Structures are given as structure tokens and as C-alpha cells.
Amino acid sequence: MKNIAVIGAGTMGNGIAHTFAQSGFNVQLIDINEASLKRGMDTIAKNLDRMVAKEKISEADKAETLGNIKTYTNTEEGVKNVDLVVEAATENIDLKLKIFKQLDDVCNNDTILATNTSSISITQIAAVTSRPEKVIGMHFMNPVPIMKLVEIIRGYNTSDEVTKTIMDLSKTLGKVPTEVNDYPGFVANRILMPMLNESIETLYNGVAGVEEIDTVMKLGMAHPMGPLQLADFIGLDVCLSILNVMYDGFKNPKYAPCPLLVNMVRAGKLGVKSGEGFYDYSESRKAEYVSKQFMK
């Protein structure tokens, strides 16, 4: 397995492309938007520059990594003769089903199709293809080049051979693959998202402010980042989407998203990506918390 296609040049997609390319794989990074591809490649170059500055890699390593990546706006051309496709598009079920239908049509019959979904059923995605045994979840963590974990999610029909191949492949990337079963949220988000949602509920109910909640979890529970700040970094729209998938999948009210989260997403307050969430990320108020206005 040497040739990898990555669908989506956003935060997760460019991180996945970076990681494979740095490990010596030929990477074909695909996005329908040329501007997104440019931003993705710029991000990879900046992250490599940081690694050079920290003397983790050489300038030659950086040049080789960038040389291993080619960009495409045409999916059919981009996935030609690849061994593995990793889809890292927006966490939207309709979009993912559309992408996998197309991939099934244009990829070689022996190509493995993986998704970086953090919550959506692998079995449901696989069902729109003619190769459900070759569909699997590869849930990387952000930032991909740094975080060691990869959740490997087997769909109902994913074969043992494909699972072993992807587990072994993840190890060659320097990752720690962990096999889990296909239920909403898998393991990482099934545990993480209710905690973030409860933190938002705590704020919404006026128990404490943003800084106070994050301070309790950082100093009292040894979390490197408070839950509200973490939600900002993940993206409040992403948190809402995952909670909705879990709520729909389990029909359990404990997964229902907090009304404050819903309203913030409607208002376009998505966290770091929009410049404001529970914190203000504008240049003049770098990561300053915005506390009292959130209380119920």
C-alpha cells in the first residue's frame, strides 16, 4: 500500500495528508475548491516549518513531504490507481453518502474506502457501496500530525483482512490504532461529547462562568484544556452535529444538545474557526473569555 487519496483539504484532511506524506506515501489530496486546496497546502507547509524550527525534521524532510503530495479538484482523476481513500469531508451524512457512492463507482475494485467520521455509522456509509467489506472508519484526532490515537471502526460487514491492513498501516504512521465497534460516537465522542455538552449546560444554568468551568476541569481534573475551550477548538457546529447523530442513534435524552449550543451555532458563533465562541479569538482580544452573557 503506497498510494493514498485524501478527500477534503480542511483541518482534518490536510493533517491526514501531511501525516501520510511525511511517512513516505504518495498522497493525492482532493477538494472541489481550489482555494481550499491552497489553504490546505499552506497549512501543511507552515506546520512543517514549525517542525523544522523545533529541529524535529530537516529542510530536506520538509521538501520531500511536500513533494509527496499532489492536489486535485477532480475526484475521479484524484483517486485513480490508489490503494486507499480516506474521506475527511464535513460531518454531514448526506454528503458522505454521496461521496462514497461516487468513490465506489470510480475507484478500483480492490481499493479500500475509509472515512474519518467521528460519529456517523460506518455500516450506513458502507451500505451505499458494492464493497461494504472494504469500508472502514479511520478516526484521526486533531491535530493529526501530533496526536497518536486512531480509532479504527469496523462496520457490520468490514472484513478481518481490511481491518488488519488498516491497523498495520496506522502503525506505520507512528499512530496507536484502537479497534472499536460501530455505534454512534464510537468511543472517543460517546464519552467526550456528553462531557462538553454538560459543561455547556452548566454555563447555561448559571452555575459558573466560562473561565471558572474551564479552570475547575484543568486544575481539578488535570485536563490540558478546559471543556469549553476544547469545544471552541473542535468547532461548536461539529459538536452539535455529533450530538445530533448520537441523539438520533440512541434516542436517549442525555445526548440532546444544550439549547445554548444550538443558539450559538445558529448565530454563527462556532469557536476558533469563526473568531468567537465561548472565547473571543480576535486579534485584539486573543482567547479572552466571554462569560456572563452566556448564563441563563
TrEMBL record:
Which protein family is named in the record?
Belongs to the 3-hydroxyacyl-CoA dehydrogenase family.
3-hydroxyacyl-CoA dehydrogenase C-terminal domain boundaries: 185-281
E.C. number(s) listed in UniProt: 1.1.1.157
Q: What is this protein called?
A: 3-hydroxybutyryl-CoA dehydrogenase
Give the lineage: Bacteria, Pseudomonadati, Bacteroidota, Flavobacteriia, Flavobacteriales
Q: Does the keyword Nucleotide-binding apply?
A: no
Statement: the UniProt record of this protein carries the keyword Thylakoid: no
Which top EC class is given?
oxidoreductase
**Organism expressing this protein natively:** Winogradskyella echinorum
Top-level taxonomic group: Bacteria
GO MF term set: 3-hydroxybutyryl-CoA dehydrogenase activity
**A Pfam family matched by this chain, by name?**
3HCDH_N
InterPro entries with a match to the protein in the record: 3-OHacyl-CoA_DH, 3-OHacyl-CoA_DH_CS, 3-OHacyl-CoA_DH_NAD-bd, 3HC_DH_C, 6-PGluconate_DH-like_C_sf, 6PGD_dom2, NAD(P)-bd_dom_sf
SUPFAM superfamilies documented for this protein:
6-phosphogluconate dehydrogenase C-terminal domain-like, NAD(P)-binding Rossmann-fold domains
Question: What UniProt keywords are attached to this protein's entry?
Answer: Oxidoreductase
UniProt domain 3-hydroxyacyl-CoA dehydrogenase NAD binding: residue ranges: 3-182
